Amino acid sequence: MEFMEEPPMTLSVPDELMAGYLDFYRNTVLRKLDGLSDEELRRSRVPSGWAPLELLKHLAHVEMRWLQWGFAGETVSEPWGDLECRGGRWRVGPEETFEEIRAFFEEQCDRSRAIVAGARWEDRAATLGGKVLPEGERPALGWILFHLLQEYARHTGHLDIARELADGSVGE
Q1: 129-165 per-position pLDDT tens digit
Q2: What's the Cα-to-Cα distance from 115 to each of 73, 134, 141, rounded to whole Å?
């Protein structure tokens, strides 16, 4: 996978800057997983037990939950499909492949981009976790995007460590 650079330092338009950083982190997550064997993708190297492939599936569902289900109010079949049970451990079945989960992740990212392109930062989420709340209690799109960005930054750091432990790769 090709390296994607951070957005230009001169970029100051908030929505373009956010879109650029989200895409930078989406790309970085995929690059960190690229080249790992199936065994390493499914192997946990941390006490909490998560594996890199589980993390990728989790991020796909995070995109779906926050932007499709929550912000756009769309019906989704399994909003918590990355978890054993709501609030439980991440899960990937033995029949699920990296290629399938990667394609699912990319589909969710594409759908997220389309939703964001048709909205304004101050627009409020339609629901929150499937619950209809008063407008003042629903997060604005700008808040949701910052939440996604911090989730990506945190989990990309986790993948940095997992990749270094797996094969010694460090850096970008």
Answers
A1: 777 777 778 999 999 999 999 999 999 999 999 999 9
A2: 11, 21, 10
The amino acid at 135: E
Mean pLDDT (the chain) is 93
- Domain residue spans of the chain: 14-167
- SS3 sequence, 27-64? HHHHHHHCCCCHHHHHCCCCCCCCCHHHHHHHHHHHHH
Q: What is the pTM of this model?
A: 0.94
CA atoms of 158 and 155, how far apart (whole Å): 5
For 1-16, the DSSP string reads ----PPPPTT---HHH
C-beta separation of 70 from 132 below 8 A:
no
pLDDT value of position 66: 95
How distant is the alpha carbon of residue 22 from its chain centre? 9
**In 3-state terms, what secondary structure has residue 171?**
coil
Instruction: Give tens-digit pLDDT for 14-37.
Output: 999 999 999 999 999 999 999 999
The pair of structure tokens assigned to 98 is: 């990296």
Architecture of domain 14-167: Up-down Bundle (1.20)
Amino acid at 102: R
Q: Quick one: tokens of 11?
A: 């970029």
